[in-house]
Design goal:
It is a single chain. With 432 residues, this protein is α/β, with parallel strands linked by helices. It folds into 2 domains: 169 residues, Alpha-Beta Complex (Aspartate Aminotransferase, domain 1); 250 residues, Aspartate Aminotransferase, domain 2. It is built from 13 helices and 14 strands. The strands form 3 sheets. A 7-stranded mixed β-sheet has the order 4-10-9-8-7-5-6, with helices on both faces. Strands 1-2-3-13 form a 4-stranded mixed β-sheet. Helix 3 packs parallel to helix 10, helix 6 packs parallel to helix 7 and helix 11 packs parallel to helix 13. It binds pyridoxal-5'-phosphate. The site of pyridoxal-5'-phosphate (PLP) has 14 residues, from helix 4.
């Protein structure tokens, strides 16, 4: 069990001054936990309990928490320069040059602070250059908290095919400008563009919909998105906020060989420091230049802390060793879970790409879109995660959420995870 003396006291104080006791919608936990330290692959709560972390703060942590060389680079930068708010800094130029080198579509680079800001700016630019207002997103993808995209992520079955906004207070007129289609469904995209292509400014897509775990795109689907958007004059936006840097420095686009017009990056870009990037074709991105009609701003854009962290993170990733290490361990975790579930007769399909693995509690079968994941047993999924947490393995207890391996995880960590998973799964009540 998770002890809750100091945890409970802090969580209660949090609830008195922070709505719901958390600073981001998806951070609520079934127990009162307050974290006081993070190091390498481990988290420590206020009651001094230790957790092996697979949550990775929803994805930024790829090198391990509090990576010494990233932190040192931030301190060094801050000893020299913080934020000027005029002109540009040497660090910003350095980072933009790196992104330009690594990311196939990044002829131009703009820095901001969060993934939501980057996707917001991408959609504004797409609307500006096309003179159109509507956009297409896909069921199961998340692109941030703003009104144009905050809908149809993990929807109840009866909401599929209808608008499913995640918040009150969103502007109905903005919601109605978004068309939601099934992922990996080329025909649905082609039909929509044929019917109303002239109204559509952009298609925004999580290249791997990691907000519902790990649903792989079919190559022909991504190629069709590229061809159809060209044909209909629509801006193609790859949201690489999760896939960027985690799967390759150049994002999934560098792996799959399909190059979008614009792309957004954040999370693993700076191993946990707040920074994001909007990158893309010069012809489009240059419309953001002052005087060219499209507004882009932010007091903290390009802050030296985030930029130095991003440069140091890229330096760690450049040899490829981090990715090789994380991918191999994630593969062992996925193989181990599959083996254990089979031995115990528990229906499970473990999806994996790169350092991400996700056990779905369902029989093997196609996983092409969100509808396919309705076969996942939410009750088993959440029960398993809760029990793993109680045994010191932090897999956030929310159905469909992904696990991430970092450079700080070791083969022994994976072995221990699998030992505990076997123990937990063996005790899973048959009725859930
Ligand atoms: N895009 C994707 C694919 C995401 O997963 C997220 C956040 O989880 C965002 C955009 C929004 O990023 P942020 O939370 O930094 O605003």
């Amino acid at each position: 069990m998770i002890a809750t003396v100091a945890n409970a006291a802090l969580a209660e104080r949090a609830r008195q001054v922070i709505p719901g006791g958390v600073n981001s919608g998806n951070r609520s936990l079934p127990w009162p936990i307050a974290f006081v330290r993070a190091e390498g692959a481990y988290l420590f709560d206020a009651d001094d309990q230790q957790y092996l972390d697979y949550h990775a703060a929803f994805g930024p942590i790829i090198l391990g928490h509090n990576h010494p060389r990233v932190n040192a680079a931030v301190v060094e930068a801050l000893n020299r320069i913080d934020i000027i708010g005029a002109g540009v800094t040497d660090l910003e130029v350095e980072l933009a040059t790196r992104l330009n080198r690594y990311i196939p579509c990044a002829e131009r680079v703009l820095l901001t602070n969060s993934g939501s800001e980057a996707t917001y700016a991408a959609l504004r630019l797409a609307r500006a250059v096309t003179g159109r207002t509507r956009i297409i997103k896909f069921q199961g993808t998340y692109h941030g908290w703003h009104d144009a995209v905050l809908m149809n992520v993990i929807s109840a079955p009866e909401k599929i095919g209808q608008y499913d906004p995640l918040s009150l207070g969103m502007l109905p007129d903005v919601i109605r400008q978004t068309i939601v289609l099934p992922f990996n469904d080329t025909e649905a995209v082609a039909e929509t563009l044929q019917r109303q292509g002239e109204e559509i400014a952009a298609i925004i897509v999580e290249v791997i919909p990691h907000n519902i775990g790990c649903v792989l795109p079919r190559l022909d689907f991504l190629q069709a998105l590229r061809n159809l958007t060209r044909e209909y004059g629509v801006v193609l936006i790859f949201d690489e906020v999760v896939t960027g840097f985690r799967h390759a420095i150049g994002g999934y686009q560098s792996i799959v060989g399909v190059t979008p017009d614009l792309a957004t990056f954040a999370k693993a870009m700076a191993n946990g420091f707040p920074i994001a990037a909007l990158v893309g074709r010069a012809e489009l991105m240059d419309r953001f230049a002052p005087g060219k009609g499209v507004f882009f701003a932010g007091t903290y854009n390009g802050h030296s802390a985030g930029v130095a962290a991003a440069l140091a993170t890229i330096a760690e990733l450049e040899s490829g060793e981090v990715h090789r290490h994380c991918f191999a361990l994630a593969q062992s975790a996925a193989d181990g879970l599959t083996r254990i579930a089979a031995e115990l007769g528990i229906p499970m399909t473990v999806a994996r790409f790169g350092s991400v693995f996700v056990p779905y509690f369902m029989e093997p079968g196609p996983i092409e879109n969100y509808t396919d994941l309705l076969r996942n047993s939410t009750a088993r999924d959440v029960w398993f995660r809760k029990k793993m947490c109680e045994h010191g393995i932090f897999m956030i207890p929310t159905a469909l959420k992904r696990n991430h391996v970092s450079a700080a995880h070791t083969p022994a960590d994976i072995d221990r995870t699998l030992d505990i998973a076997r123990q937990v799964l063996s005790a899973m009540p048959a009725h859930i």
